[in-house]
Amino acid sequence: MNLFEIRNASSSDVCALTKMLKTLGYPTDEHTLAERLSRFTSQNGYGVAVAISDDNLIGFVAWSRSLLFVSSAVRIHIEGIFIDQKYRGFGTGKKLMQHVEKIAKSYSPAIVDLTSGKRREKDGSHEFYKRIGYKNEGHMAKLYLRKEL
């Protein structure tokens, strides 16, 4: 694989991002995603970065910032991350996460967190997160609960 670059997502990325979100289990249409991308990235502390190789979008990471009540830290939550199957294992995901971590450090102290569904365990996602230093163990282990309204 040739080298890849990481840059902020733009409206020209919507077609590829729509396909990636569908693969992740979040189907949407391009029009809706274009509006969502514009609204999302216009907020302070929110962003989407993409990885590009040979003019092809091969992955993305999206994050949001929030303040914590129980801590002085700023929380950066990974809203989604995806690497095209044929580009996995080349460091793309790690570089995207490092990109977000660099942003998080500007808010220091900061916590970067994410959720990863059980279905992602089979594809190696959970092991990937552990390899780059993310934990769900000890007294800070989490149970993710959700209620859709």
Name the descriptors.
149 residues, Aminopeptidase, globular, alpha+beta, 5-stranded mixed β-sheet, 4 helices
Question: Would you write up a description of this structure?
Answer:
The chain has 149 residues and is of the alpha+beta class. The chain starts with a strand and ends in an 18-residue tail after the last helix. It has a single domain, classed as Aminopeptidase, CATH 3.40.630. The protein has helices spanning 14-24, 30-41, 92-105, 125-131; strands at residues 5-8, 47-53, 56-67, 74-83, 110-114. Helix 1 crosses helix 2 (30-41). It is globular. The chain is built from four helices and five strands. Strand 3 (56-67) and strand 4 (74-83) form a beta hairpin.
Describe the protein's topology.
Layout: E1 5-8, H1 14-24, H2 30-41, E2 47-53, E3 56-67, E4 74-83, H3 92-105, E5 110-114, H4 125-131
Parallel strand pairs: 4-5
Antiparallel strand pairs: 1-2, 2-3, 3-4
- The tally of beta strands, per DSSP, is 5
Per CATH, the architecture is 3-Layer(aba) Sandwich
Q: Please estimate the helix content.
A: 25-40%
CATH class reads Alpha Beta
What is the count of helical runs?
A: 4
Rg for CA atoms: 15 Å
- Which blocks of ≥5 consecutive residues have pLDDT under 50? none
Coarse morphology: globular
Helix-strand pattern: EHHEEEHEH
